[in-house]
Automatic annotation (TrEMBL):
Residues 203-323 form the Alcohol dehydrogenase-like C-terminal domain. Residues 28-116 form the Alcohol dehydrogenase-like N-terminal domain. Its cofactor is Zn(2+). This is NAD(P)-dependent alcohol dehydrogenase. It holds the Pfam family ADH_zinc_N. The keyword Metal-binding applies. InterPro entries: ADH-like_C, ADH-like_N, ADH_Zn_CS, GroES-like_sf, NAD(P)-bd_dom_sf. Belongs to the zinc-containing alcohol dehydrogenase family. Keywords: Metal-binding, NAD, Oxidoreductase, Zinc. The keyword Zinc applies. It comes from Georgenia deserti.
Amino acid sequence: MTVAARGAVAAAVGAPLTYQDIEIDEPGAGEILVRIVATGVCHTDEITRHGDLPMPFPAVLGHEGAGIVDAVGEGVTTPAVGDRVVLGWPWCGQCRNCLAGEHRYCLRMGEAVAGGARLLGPAAGRSAYHFPDGAQLYGHFFGQSSFATHSLVLASSAVVVPEDVPLDIAGPLACGISTGAGAVLNTARPEPGASLVIYGVGAVGLSAVMAAVNTPATTIIAVDRHVDRLHLARELGATHTVDAGTEDDVPEAVRRICGGPADHALECTGVIAVVEQAVASVGMLGTCILVGGAPAGATFAVDHVSTLWGKRIVGTLGGGGRSDTLMPALLDLYGQGRFPYDRLIGYFDAEDVERAIAASKRGEVVKPVVRRDGGGRTPAGADEPEAGVVGLA
Ligand SMILES: [Zn+2]
Ligand SMILES: [Zn+2]
């Protein structure tokens, strides 16, 4: 049996996303079918469409989905039909890193996020997605392919969203927002009085700023070349800003602010020249955390001697840790007004993914979210935020 759905299909590398009728197999053992209410749009969707991840095509992308459980497969006890969920990253549950609780570093992460097929179960290695004529379609992108009316996902990757949290803000927790916040809370873990510099304050970097406000770090520096983003970073809790568009020597500007090297640098741009600045911003026992994705095959150079002095350069994926602890904590902080990431979100209609990507590229919106059915707010339409482009004043 299959489920009739609609999804944004990229026919080939570089092709536009076009909404069309698709079919998805019913959930098997350990799987759930989720009716997608809203999904964030992430830079990774765009670079995958252009071939930077080895995703097979034609494919349905999207990986920041939130929705309502429509059906559950054999053996699934949680979540239940009717539960509101956000779709975290998939993980195999069987490898050394999964068994150690490091779900983000599942040894099968590559195939789990971009293999285009089911990761587990008797149908592992085969896609549950088809065109109505039976032709092959690839899905399961980050275990969800959320640019669609429905997603088939592993029950283990879904996290239940509390009733008082609108579904149309939950989706971005799956990737972008958790990536920035987790890099601070799971990886940097700043000590009292620590300094932290964040290179690139888009959705990921601004999430890092908001997370840092919830730590004992006392110096939080935002670096960007877009002045409006620096203003927003200040509003969200950055104590200092550096305009990379006018500052000749950014690491030196960081040292002036900190009275020496920073304790932690977070690199959220993926631009190699900026990676090297971030590494140069920290000194003895400092930690440079690589968050942003550079193009496939990119390499960087660092000064050898200064790196010997106890400097650590650490990569992170999706903020590290595990979805089922990080996402509920961030939702609690949001509810308490301590992590106001809804300020980054701009809304678009469900099938306007291309418009959302374009607005994001032009810098008009920090975190685009496409949604249907009023974003799942109850009663429908009540206190619904303004549609269109928000986030930047
Ligand atoms: Zn694993
Ligand atoms: Zn993402």
